[in-house]
Amino acid sequence: MMPQASWTRDARRVSARLPYVRRLLDRLAGEGASESAETHLTALESRLRSLVAEHLGVDPHELTAHVSLTDDLAADSLDLVELGLAIEEEFSLTLPEAMLTGVRTYAELCAAVETLDHERSVPEPSAEMPAYFSARIMPARAHAHGDRHHGGWLTPYTAQAIVEDARGEGSGARLEMTVSSHLSSVRLARLLDQFAPLGARGVQVSVRRDDPAGTDLPDAAA
Fold it and tell me: Is the pTM value of this prediction over 0.85?
C-alpha cells in the first residue's frame, strides 16, 4: 500500500492553495502578465472540468469545489487511475500516484493540476540536483542487530541500496527518511512513489521534510 503518513500534510497544503493560485501567479508574472495568467488558469480549469465530467459520467455543473470524487460522484480506484492517465495525456504532465491518492475533492484535483502546471513553468533552481537526505532503517523486533543508516545525496544508486537494505529486514521493519525542507511537493510525491514497493514487503515507510537548525548542505558536485 502507498505510504501516506507524510503525504497527508502536503495534500492539505495543496488543497488549501487553490483560492490563492491565481494571485500567486499574478505576483510572479507581474502586473503586465496577470491577465494572461488568469486566462491560462481559466482555460486549464475548463479543460479539466470537461475531462473529469466525461470520464466520470457526470454533468460539468456537478463539479463544485467541495464535491467528493469518491463519495458524491461514486468514482472507484480504477476510475481515478484512468482519470489520472487521461489528465497526464491531456496536459502533458506527470501526476505522481501519491498526489492523486491524496486528492478527495474536485477543488483538490484542480489545485494539484494547477500546481504541477505552474511548477513545470517555473523550475526549481536545483531541479536537476538530487535531494539531500538522511535515512534510518529499523529492523523488526525479532532481529537482534541495530539500525542501519544512510545519508547524503539521494542518487539512483543510493536509493536502490536503501530499498535493498530495507527489504532485507523483512516485514515489520521501518524506514524513516528526512529530506530537505526545500524539496517541492511534486518531488516529495515522486520520492514516495520510489519507495512504495516496500509497502508490499511489510516495510513501513515515512518520509518527511525538515532541516535541522544550522545545517549547511554540501556541494552536490563535490
Answer: no
